[in-house]
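Regression test case RT-17, inverse folding.

Input:
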C-alpha cells in the first residue's frame, strides 16, 4: 500500500527548494529509537514503503512503528518523445520533502538490539545518510 494523499487542493504543484535544516527539531515523540535524516532530499512513496517493510521484517511484526514522513508532493512527468509545450505532464509519483534533521521512523516495543539491526538494514533502502538515535542518548551537536 503506497502512501499518497486522499485529495489535494491542486492536483499539480511546483517542487520548491530543500535548503537548510529542519527549523524545529523534536528528537522523538513516540518511540525509543528514531531514524533521522542527515541530508535534504526527496523521498518517494516507494522508498518509504520498502523501508517500512524491511523494519517490519526485522522486528518480526512485533513492536510499534511510527512513520513520520508522508509523501504529499506530486511529481509530474511527460511521456517520452513528446514535443515541448501542451501543458504540464500527469502525476507520476508522490514524494516527501525530507530536510536535514527530520525524524523519518520511530520504533518501540522490542529489544534494543533488534531495533538497531532493523535500522541498519533500513538505512540501505534510503537514498541519503541517516542517523540512528535513542531517546536516552545525548543529542549530537551536528545532525
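Golden output:
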Amino acid at each position: 500500500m503506497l502512501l499518497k494523499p486522499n485529495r489535494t487542493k491542486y492536483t499539480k504543484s511546483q517542487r520548491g527548494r530543500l535548503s537548510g535544516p529542519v527549523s524545529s527539531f523534536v528528537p522523538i515523540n513516540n518511540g525509543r529509537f528514531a531514524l533521522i535524516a542527515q541530508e535534504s532530499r526527496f523521498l518517494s512513496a516507494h522508498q518509504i514503503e520498502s523501508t517500512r517493510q524491511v523494519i517490519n521484517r526485522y522486528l518480526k511484526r512485533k513492536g510499534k512503528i511510527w512513520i513520520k514522513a508522508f509523501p504529499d508532493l506530486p511529481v509530474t512527468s511527460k511521456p517520452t518523445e513528446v514535443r515541448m509545450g501542451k501543458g504540464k505532464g500527469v502525476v507520476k509519483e508522490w514524494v516527501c520533502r525530507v530536510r536535514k534533521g527530520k525524524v523519518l521512523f520511530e520504533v518501540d516495543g522490542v529489544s534494543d538490539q533488534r531495533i538497531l539491526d532493523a535500522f541498519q538494514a533500513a538505512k540501505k533502502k534510503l537514498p541519503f545518510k541517516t542517523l540512528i538515535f535513542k531517546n536516552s542518548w545525548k543529542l549530537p551537536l551536528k545532525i
